[in-house]
């Protein structure tokens, strides 16, 4: 147990959380408008591939991130066309996008780079870590130096954006005109339509916002964490983000708490590998790897009946005459 340090787990939790936070906030916009966003996984994969490829080609991670956001927004528009304009099955559309992106990104990576379905290593072109002012001076101070310099500092810009996004999304949803219209479209679209709100336009806007926010999850995986694209590197992050939405009852702060919880268990899973537990011995790697998903099943089983989704979620809007 000597190798299992709480401090390291907490730092890993902060570094794992942005992937889930961006995806969960993206799903929050889409589902609050009334569209089930089951395609989070596919959008993460697509944006990760595009971000890594463009960042490598241009030797600029920011251009890669912008390219990933543009492609993910286009996928959001495609998803909106199926769900909003054509009034198709939103679950089927989401699953189709996930399957298509899983295969397409691998095939394109193999065709373009000939490296077994991965993109070249970005090396020095990854997003750098932010060193907070005064962190070196406080490095020798017990606890304070670690808290300021390692837990709070030492992360990429996208990490801080992910955490600042939580209060911003809360303000947009509950204190802005757009947020009021968004929630109205998800709860009672016919009442919103009667009040002069364009349900279609609002839902399309939500899908584009969801696409852009979700792209940051993929960019974080490719441009910050790994430095390259790998097939199915999202590893179910989109589905975990949806579970966090259920956990948080489609509210930003509680959803973020769910993301941190899953991030903690993912970090715990990594730190448990190779650790010898007293009286138990070394845990099998396969058993350790399923920890986040077992937690997901437990959360869904315990909270699904208590969660109250937007009333019009998954229901196509047909304008009354």
Automatic annotation (TrEMBL):
Q: How does it sit in the membrane?
A: Multi-pass membrane protein
Q: Name one GO molecular function term.
A: transmembrane transporter activity
Superkingdom is: Bacteria
What Gene Ontology cellular-component terms does the record carry?
plasma membrane
Q: Spell out the Pfam families in the cross-references.
A: BPD_transp_2
Where it sits in the cell: the answer is: Cell membrane
Q: Which residues cross the membrane?
A: 6-28, 62-84, 91-113, 146-173, 204-222, 254-272, 287-305
Query: Which keywords annotate this record?
Result: Cell membrane, Membrane, Transmembrane, Transmembrane helix
Q: Note the CDD domains from the entry.
A: TM_PBP1_transp_TpRbsC_like
InterPro entries per UniProt:
ABC_transp_permease
Primary location class: membrane
Signal peptide residues on this chain, from the entry's feature table:
none
Provide the protein name: ABC transporter permease
Taxonomic source organism: Zemynaea arenosa
């Amino acid at each position: 147990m000597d190798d299992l340090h709480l401090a390291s787990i907490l730092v890993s939790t902060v570094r794992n959380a942005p992937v889930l936070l961006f995806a969960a906030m993206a799903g929050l916009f889409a589902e609050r408008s009334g569209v089930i966003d089951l395609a989070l996984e596919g959008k993460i994969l697509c944006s990760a591939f595009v971000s890594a490829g463009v960042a490598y080609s241009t030797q600029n991670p920011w251009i890669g991130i912008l390219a990933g956001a543009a492609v993910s927004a286009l996928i959001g528009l495609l998803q909106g066309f199926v769900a909003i304009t054509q009034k198709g099955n939103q679950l089927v559309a989401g699953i189709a996008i996930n399957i298509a992106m899983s295969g397409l990104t691998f095939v394109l990576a193999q065709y373009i780079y000939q490296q077994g379905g991965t993109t070249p290593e970005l090396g020095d072109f990854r997003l750098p870590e932010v060193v907070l002012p005064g962190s070196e001076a406080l490095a020798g101070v017990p606890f304070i130096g670690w808290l300021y310099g390692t837990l709070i500092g030492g992360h990429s810009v996208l990490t801080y954006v992910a955490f600042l996004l939580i209060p911003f999304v809360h303000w947009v949803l509950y204190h802005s005109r757009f947020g009021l219209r968004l929630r109205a479209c998800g709860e009672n679209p016919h009442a919103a339509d009667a009040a002069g709100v364009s349900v279609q336009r609002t839902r399309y806007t939500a899908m584009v916002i969801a696409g852009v926010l979700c792209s940051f999850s993929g960019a974080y995986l490719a441009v910050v964490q790994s430095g390259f694209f790998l097939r199915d590197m999202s590893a179910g992050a989109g589905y975990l983000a949806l579970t966090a939405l259920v956990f948080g009852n489609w509210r930003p702060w509680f959803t973020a708490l769910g993301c941190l919880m899953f991030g903690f268990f993912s970090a715990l899973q990594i730190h448990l590998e190779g650790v010898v537990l007293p009286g138990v011995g070394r845990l099998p790697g396969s058993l350790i790897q399923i920890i986040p998903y077992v937690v997901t099943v437990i959360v869904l089983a315990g909270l699904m009946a208590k969660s109250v989704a937007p009333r019009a979620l998954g229901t196509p809007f047909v304008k009354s005459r």
